[in-house]
């Protein structure tokens, strides 16, 4: 029985899901071997949206290359920028002012909520429920408005720079964030009523796409995908950056390992993010929003690595510097790539309809996988 | 005096006075045909705009609001667009079956309109096995879907068609059994008999809890039979792109699309006829004045009101529930709905024999 799995025999159907397909949310191409409705093998084909961001970064200065990284995981662009800024600051040995640190964390957590909101809507849409998408966008829209006021952009923010943030907060920021949190608390029960508590939804999610803790570690999963299997991997807790070690929040862990556990991790993470924002929004320290840095940045010769927790998992930035104004080599460790690699493992033996749900719970963003 | 049956009778009288009997019959058949085709198109357009407005309302949107007053002509414009689009036939497709399938779907939807009583004594064909006729003809629908899926030469289409075949064949059983509950109560398969038997109260009120169970089973089963969400596995968008009509374009696609909506109308009309009294007004026991007021509302408004209420319920399902998986879908039918409706039918039979109903 075990040997049969993964081999193509007569009677199998091979279907191409993607590169243009409603379920892949981008240009992911999956070659699926099916026996009737049962999946025998899933083969992801990548490269449809490869823009060689890592190579491009080698010819851009340390101030410029951050803007390109907004286009990697476009749903958590703040956090990508943050990771790069942290890495450059590590090389420059710059101390970031407290105000900038708080602003960065606030922006990160708002981004995390916005990203999870979009995931929630898209995931419900994968399961055939259209309405949640619009309900999620209602809340996400107000986050986008907040971002637009302060950063001037709604998707690719480019707000974090080496040494702090690009400009100060908009005067309305605190008021708007508080309004958003009130809206969110008023509407969050709708999420449970509409989707989480639905019997069809629970049957579709529970005991589907099981990922054991060992497999999650060996495949290099991170973020909610691994935490749904009970693997503690929140970078904010393990290797705290900025002011995360002074904040009070829980690392969300679920032990189910199935699609529903991964779903619940994200739902609960949104509440933790709200909790973090609540602690910070009235305590933004006065002072500079940016440290004094030279106009042309030069990193000393050496290798620098930082990692942050994006909405999808661990993002690592690795810079090799030869001492010049541009990096010699840059490598990003993106969460989506490792999370995608586990898809074949968890999808084998389940039905085609479940594959879509599993892809939803892994929360794949294709430009993050390809870069 | 302006009721549908009066108009039909006067027309018949005038035709038989003017022409000889054969000519009268031919003219009447042509008129009926034109009426059915017109109703098919009109219902399709109305239901499409209704679905879009209902979904918009549930999704905090406005919906179509540009073409015509409040966007009411949007589906007309869409139909015109589809009419002028090229109807592609993919390479390697079975041309005959591929082009025939949408027409089979359309013809089935039109045939099903025959025994439906749209108003008091207004019905195309009150045949004595009306309910059986509906069950029999609606089974042909699955053939058009299988034809479309097979002939398209597309794996997604084939899978959608196979899913749909398994689904419709299964759910027909519980739909049939819940219809039988009413037939047992009434003792007749004729649609007009069933409606007149509800003059003193609709079956859903007269038949105690077993009738309510039969009604709920019926609604679930017909939602599945018409391939509507949460049972829309045949065209599961996120899995199979568009299922059995992936390769269809232009008017051939539109025929499938319209047939789906007309089928929804028909199953809701059957449901309203069997369980909610068709065109029968709502009466409460001895409240003579109240009943008198209810009688003033025209019978066609009663019929369409009930039908559109059921259609709204089915649309409500679609915009609220996620989709089931194929094995869960079949489990629901074979493990739960079918045994429940079988036992329910036994109880209803006992009730009918012992005259326990009101």
Descriptors:
heterodimer, A: 371 residues, alpha+beta, Cytochrome-c3 Hydrogenase, chain B, three-stranded antiparallel beta sheet, 8 strands, disordered N terminus, B: 358 residues, mainly alpha, two-stranded antiparallel sheet, 2 strands
CATH class division of chain A: Mainly Alpha
Instruction: Enumerate the strands of the largest sheet of chain A in spatial order, edge to edge or round the barrel.
Output: 1-2-3
Give the terminus-to-terminus CA distance of chain A.
Answer: 38 Å
The strand count of chain B comes to: 2
Q: Main sheet of chain A?
A: 3 strands, antiparallel
Main sheet properties of chain B: 2 strands, antiparallel
User: DSSP strand (E) fraction of chain B?
Assistant: under 5%
Q: Give the chain pair forming the largest contact, with residue counts.
A: A-B, 31 and 28 residues
Helix content of chain A: 40-55%
What is the structural class of chain B?
mainly alpha
Helix content of chain B: 55-70%
Uncertain segments of chain B of ≥5 residues (pLDDT<50)? none
| SS elements, strand count of chain A | 8
CATH architecture of chain A: Orthogonal Bundle
Give the overall shape of chain B, derived from the CA principal axes. globular
Distance between the termini of chain B: 32 Å
- Helix count from the secondary structure assignment of chain A: 15
**Residue runs with pLDDT of under 50 for 5 or more positions of chain A:** 1-6
Rounded to an integer, what's the Rg of chain A over CA atoms?
Answer: 21 Å
Q: CATH superfamily membership of chain A, which one? A: Cytochrome-c3 Hydrogenase, chain B
Write down the overall geometry of chain A: globular
């Amino acid at each position: 029985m075990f040997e049969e799995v993964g081999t193509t025999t007569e009677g199998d159907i091979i279907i191409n899901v993607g590169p243009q397909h409603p379920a892949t949310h981008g240009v992911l191409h999956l070659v699926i071997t099916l026996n009737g409705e049962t999946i025998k093998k899933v083969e992801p084909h990548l490269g449809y949206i490869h823009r060689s961001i890592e190579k491009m970064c080698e010819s851009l200065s340390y101030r410029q290359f951050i803007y390109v990284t907004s286009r990697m995981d476009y749903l958590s662009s703040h956090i990508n920028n943050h990771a790069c800024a942290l890495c450059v600051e590590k090389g420059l040995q710059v101390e970031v002012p407290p105000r900038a640190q708080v602003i960065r964390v606030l922006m990160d957590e708002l981004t995390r909520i916005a990203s999870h909101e979009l995931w929630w809507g898209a995931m419900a849409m994968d399961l055939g429920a259209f309405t949640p998408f619009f309900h999620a966008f209602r809340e996400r829209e107000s986050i986008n408005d907040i971002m637009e006021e302060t950063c001037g952009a709604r998707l690719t923010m480019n707000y974090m720079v080496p040494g702090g943030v690009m400009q100060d907060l908009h005067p309305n920021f605190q008021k708007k964030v508080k309004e958003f949190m009130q809206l969110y608390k008023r509407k969050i029960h709708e999420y449970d009523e509409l989707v989480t508590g639905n019997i069809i939804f629970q049957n579709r999610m529970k005991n589907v796409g099981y990922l054991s803790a060992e497999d999650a570690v060996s495949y290099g999963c991170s973020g909610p995908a691994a935490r749904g299997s009970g693997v503690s991997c929140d970078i904010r807790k393990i290797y705290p950056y900025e002011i995360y070690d002074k904040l009070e929040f829980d690392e969300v862990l679920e032990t189910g390992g199935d699609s529903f556990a991964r779903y619940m991790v994200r739902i609960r993470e949104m509440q933790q993010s709200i909790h973090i924002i609540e602690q910070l929004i009235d305590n933004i320290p006065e002072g500079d929003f940016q440290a004094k840095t030279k106009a042309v940045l030069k990193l000393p010769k050496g290798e620098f690595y930082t990692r942050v927790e994006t909405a999808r998992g661990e993002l690592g930035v690795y810079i090799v510097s030869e001492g010049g104004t541009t990096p010699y080599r840059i490598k990003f460790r993106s969460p989506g790539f490792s999370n995608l690699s586990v898809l074949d493992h968890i999808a084998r033996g389940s039905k085609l309809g479940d594959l879509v749900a599993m892809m939803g719970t892994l929360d794949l963003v294709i430009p993050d996988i390809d870069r | 005096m302006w009721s549908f049956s009066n108009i039909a009778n006067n027309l018949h009288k005038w035709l038989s006075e003017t022409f000889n009997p054969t000519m009268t019959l031919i003219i009447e058949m042509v008129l009926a045909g034109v009426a059915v085709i017109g109703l098919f198109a009109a219902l399709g357009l109305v239901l499409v705009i209704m679905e879009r407005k209902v979904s918009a309302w549930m999704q905090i949107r406005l919906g179509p609001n540009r073409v015509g007053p409040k966007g009411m002509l949007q589906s007309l414009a869409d139909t015109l667009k589809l009419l002028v689009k090229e109807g592609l036939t993919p390479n390697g497709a079975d041309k005959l079956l591929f082009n025939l399938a949408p027409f089979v779907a359309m013809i089935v939807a039109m045939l099903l309109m025959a025994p439906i009583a749209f108003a008091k004594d207004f019905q195309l064909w009150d045949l004595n096995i009306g309910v059986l006729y509906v069950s029999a003809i609606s089974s042909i629908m699955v053939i058009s879907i299988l034809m479309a899926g097979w002939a398209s030469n597309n794996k997604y289409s084939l899978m959608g068609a196979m899913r749909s075949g398994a689904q419709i064949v299964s759910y027909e059983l519980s739909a049939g059994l819940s219809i039988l509950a009413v037939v047992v109560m009434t003792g007749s398969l004729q649609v007009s008999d069933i409606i007149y038997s509800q003059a003193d109260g609709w079956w859903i009120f007269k038949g105690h809890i077993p009738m309510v169970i039969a009604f709920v089973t019926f609604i679930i089963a017909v939602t599945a039979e018409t391939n509507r969400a949460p049972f829309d596995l045949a065209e599961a968008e996120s899995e199979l792109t568009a299922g059995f009509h992936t390769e269809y374009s232009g008017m051939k696609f539109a025929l499938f699309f319209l047939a789906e909506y007309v089928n929804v109308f028909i199953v809701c009309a059957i449901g309203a006829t069997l369980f909610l009294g068709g065109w029968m007004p709502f009466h409460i026991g001895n409240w003579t004045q109240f009943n008198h007021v209810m009688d003033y509302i025209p019978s066609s408004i009663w019929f369409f009101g009930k039908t559109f209420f059921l259609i709204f319920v089915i649309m409500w399902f679609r915009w609220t529930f996620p989709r089931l998986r194929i094995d869960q879908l079949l489990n629901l039918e074979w493990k739960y709905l079918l045994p429940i409706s079988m036992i329910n039918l036994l109880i209803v039979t006992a009730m009918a024999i012992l005259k326990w109903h009101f």
